[in-house]
C-alpha cells in the first residue's frame, strides 16, 4: 500500500466531504468529529456521488436516496443501500491529507459509475 497526497488539510473542513483523485481512483474525502476519512465516491445503491452528499453523526449520507454509510467500515447503516462502500486508510500530517491505496485499487480505478447498458 502506498499513501498519496490528495489535498491540503484546509481543503476538507470539519463537517464537509469533497471529491479527490488518486490517479484514476475517485475518492470522497471527509472530515467528521476531527477525523479525516476516505471512501469510494459512488453509492452502492444507484451510483450517486457521495461527495455531493452530506455528513451526519452516523456517517456519510447519499444525496439521492438517503442511504448512510459508516465512514470507518463502509457498511451501510440506513437503506436503501445494502452493499458496503470501499474505505481507504488516511494519514494527515504536515498539513496534508494522504490516502492509502494498493496497486490493484489504482489499476481498477476503484468503484465508479456503472456503464449504461446499450442493447
Automatic annotation (TrEMBL):
The keyword Iron applies. Residues 3-99 form the Rieske domain. One of its GO terms (molecular function) is 2 iron, 2 sulfur cluster binding. InterPro entries: Rieske_2Fe-2S (IPR017941), Rieske_2Fe-2S_sf (IPR036922). It comes from the Bacteria. PANTHER family: 3-PHENYLPROPIONATE_CINNAMIC ACID DIOXYGENASE FERREDOXIN SUBUNIT, FERREDOXIN-RELATED. This is Rieske 2Fe-2S domain-containing protein. It comes from Nocardioides agariphilus.
Amino acid at each position: 500500500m502506498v499513501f498519496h497526497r490528495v489535498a491540503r488539510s484546509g481543503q476538507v473542513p470539519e463537517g464537509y466531504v469533497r471529491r479527490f483523485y488518486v490517479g484514476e481512483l475517485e475518492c470522497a474525502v471527509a472530515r467528521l468529529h476531527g477525523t479525516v476519512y476516505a471512501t469510494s465516491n459512488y453509492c452502492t445503491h444507484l451510483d450517486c456521488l457521495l461527495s455531493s452528499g452530506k455528513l451526519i453523526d452516523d456517517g456519510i449520507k447519499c444525496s439521492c436516496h438517503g442511504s448512510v454509510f459508516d465512514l470507518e467500515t463502509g457498511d451501510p447503516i440506513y437503506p436503501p443501500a445494502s452493499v458496503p462502500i470501499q474505505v481507504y486508510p488516511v494519514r494527515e500530517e504536515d498539513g496534508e491529507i494522504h490516502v492509502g491505496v494498493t496497486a490493484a485499487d489504482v489499476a481498477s480505478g476503484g468503484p465508479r459509475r456503472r456503464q449504461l447498458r446499450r442493447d
